[in-house]
Amino acid sequence: MRLFIALDLPAKVRQALDELIARLQPKCPSARWVRPEGIHVTLKFIGYTDASKLDALLAALAPVGSAQPVEMKFRGLGFFPNERRPQVLWCGVEAAKDLAELAAKIERALAPVNVPPESRPFMPHLTLARLQPGETSRAEMDELFRAAEEMKEQSFGSARATEFCLYESILKRSGAEYKRLHTFPLVKGSA
What we know:
There is one protein chain. This protein is an alpha+beta fold and about 190 residues long. The chain has a single domain (about 1-185), classed as Cyclic phosphodiesterase (Cyclic Phosphodiesterase, Chain: A), CATH 3.90.1140.10. It has helices at about 10-25, 55-60, 95-110, 140-150, and strands at about 1-5, 30-35, 40-50, 70-80, 90-95, 125-130, 155-160, 165-170, 175-185. Strand 4 and strand 5 (about 90-95) form a beta hairpin. It is globular. The model has no long low-confidence stretch (mean pLDDT about 90).
């Protein structure tokens, strides 16, 4: 099983991102664009895990929570790792420190069940497209850079997360499909 933990998005934000992708896709057809229904805020990518470990993961994640729902705003576009070597086009996620604290709590909760910690700092974002080095032309990249610059202050909506989810990522030729395995209430006693 290929697993990750994420926050879902409200329908209104998904619709705004769907419209954004529809506008950007013709500018860079060589990119692998994410299906809007699969966009989420990743809190932790666990990776390949034996199915026998699932109960231990669920037990480790059950007590993780927050004092309040996590408030997020989705704004602007950018590139990972940077504009000189763009591999991912993303939408920014602005949130109070409780989002990073939630990701850190999840990391700590999974350590006793031997899930390796993330080596990079937590950077909340919404992946919109993956760019293929050598396949994406300079003209396409220039179009995306211009669009990102024009939209650096544009808002794509907001969300108030009251739960987080454990997902299985099933890789297929048509792209990854996500299957929700379990939902955890964020504010304990709110479920």
